[in-house]
Write a structure and sequence with these properties.
alpha+beta, 5 helices, 7-stranded mixed sheet
C-alpha cells in the first residue's frame, strides 16, 4: 500500500520546496540520458492546482494572445501550419494580401464534354440552306399520280385501254368544262350530273328537273339541251362527279369533253338499250386537279341503281327514276 504525500499540502496550501537541481551534465551524457519522470506527489499537486495536465499527458503549448485580425487563413497554435493552397478560380480566401491570379486552364471545370477535347468548331464548308418563313397556311405536299395528261388543242379518243386523263392545274381551274353528246340527225340524249362536294353533300342535277345546282344562287353545274357545264372556278369545292345518260336507249355517237384551252377528249357511245340510265364519265378532284375516266360500263339500271352503284347513297328518291330535289 502506497502512502500519499500530497495530503499535507492540501491541508497547509503551501507548495513544498522543489528538490535541488541536479548537477549539470555534459552534452554527450545529456543526449544519452533517459528523462526521469517527476515525483508522483509533485505531478498530482500541479494537476490539482491547475498548473499542469493530468499525469501521463503532454502539456499543451501556450495559446497566443488573441488579435483583432480577421485573417481566416492564419495558422493557430493548436494546429500545425500548412502551406497555402494553390490558386483557384473558386478560392474563398478572405484575408490574403492580394487576389489570387487566375490560372489558365484548357477546359472549364463545369464542362459537359464527355469525350471531346473541346467545343467543336462550326462547319462553314457547306452552304446553309435558307429557312422558309413560317406560315399559318399549310400546303399539301404534291405528288405525281403518273397518269397521262393532255396538251392544249390536243384531241384524244378514250377507249377501254386508255380511259384516264389527268388535267393540269390550269386546265382544271380556268373557264368551264363542257360535256355534250355529238349525235346523228334526229337523235337526242338527256344527260344528268351527280356530284359530291368537299363537305360530303350529295346532289343531282337533271335537265328535266332542276337544271342547275347544287346551290341555284351560285350554280356549280348546269344541265340543258347542250349537255353539262361545270364551273371550274369553284373546283376546290367539288370532290367528285358522275355524268349519266338518262334515256331508255343509247343512240350511238360520241360524248365530247372540252376544256377552256381547247383540249378535247372523245368517248364513243354504243347503240344499246338501257334500263333507264347508264354511267358515261366520272371525275375526281385530286389536289385541285381533275382526273377524268371514261366508264364504258355495260351495266345499266334505274337512275337510283346507277347512283348507288357508284357510291352516291345519300340521295333521296320519289321513285327509282325520280330523285327528290
Amino acid at each position: 500500500m502506497t502512502t500519499r504525500t500530497d495530503l499535507p499540502y492540501l491541508r497547509r496550501r503551501v507548495r513544498p520546496t522543489a528538490p535541488a537541481a541536479a548537477p549539470a551534465a555534459s552534452p554527450a551524457s545529456e543526449a544519452s540520458a533517459v528523462p526521469t519522470p517527476a515525483p508522483a506527489g509533485t505531478a498530482v499537486a500541479d494537476f490539482l492546482s491547475g498548473r499542469s495536465v493530468r499525469p501521463g499527458r503532454e502539456r499543451p503549448a501556450p495559446t497566443p494572445a488573441p488579435t483583432a485580425s480577421l485573417d481566416l487563413d492564419a495558422p493557430t497554435a493548436s494546429t500545425p501550419s500548412t502551406p497555402p493552397p494553390a490558386a483557384s478560380s473558386t478560392s474563398l480566401d478572405l484575408g490574403g494580401d492580394q487576389p489570387a491570379a487566375p490560372t489558365p486552364t484548357s477546359a472549364s471545370s463545369t464542362s459537359l464534354d464527355l469525350g471531346g477535347d473541346g467545343p467543336a468548331a462550326p462547319d462553314t464548308s457547306a452552304p446553309r440552306r435558307p429557312v422558309a418563313p413560317m406560315s399559318r397556311h399549310t400546303r399539301e405536299r404534291p405528288y405525281d399520280l403518273r397518269l397521262p395528261t393532255i396538251t392544249e388543242h390536243e384531241r384524244r379518243v378514250l377507249s377501254a385501254a386508255d380511259r384516264l386523263v389527268h388535267l393540269t392545274r390550269m386546265q382544271s381551274a380556268v373557264g368551264r368544262l363542257r360535256i355534250e353528246p355529238a349525235l346523228g340527225a334526229g337523235e337526242h340524249l338527256d344527260l344528268g350530273c351527280v356530284l359530291e362536294t368537299i363537305d360530303r353533300e350529295e346532289s343531282i342535277v337533271l335537265g328535266t328537273l332542276n337544271r342547275q345546282g347544287p346551290d341555284p344562287r351560285r350554280p356549280m353545274v348546269r344541265c340543258g339541251g347542250q349537255g353539262v357545264e361545270i364551273d371550274l372556278r369553284r373546283i376546290l369545292s367539288l370532290s367528285r362527279l358522275l355524268v349519266v345518260a338518262v334515256a331508255p336507249r343509247l343512240p350511238g355517237g360520241t360524248l365530247v369533253v372540252t376544256t377552256y384551252g381547247g383540249s378535247r377528249m372523245e368517248i364513243p357511245l354504243p347503240v344499246r338499250a338501257t334500263l333507264g340510265a347508264q354511267a358515261l364519265l366520272t371525275a375526281y378532284v385530286v389536289q385541285g386537279r381533275l382526273v377524268l375516266r371514261a366508264e364504258l360500263d355495260p351495266f345499266s339500271g334505274t337512275l337510283q341503281q346507277v347512283c348507288g352503284a357508284y357510291g352516291y347513297t345519300d340521295l333521296t328518291w320519289r321513285d327509282p327514276a325520280t330523285p327528290l330535289v
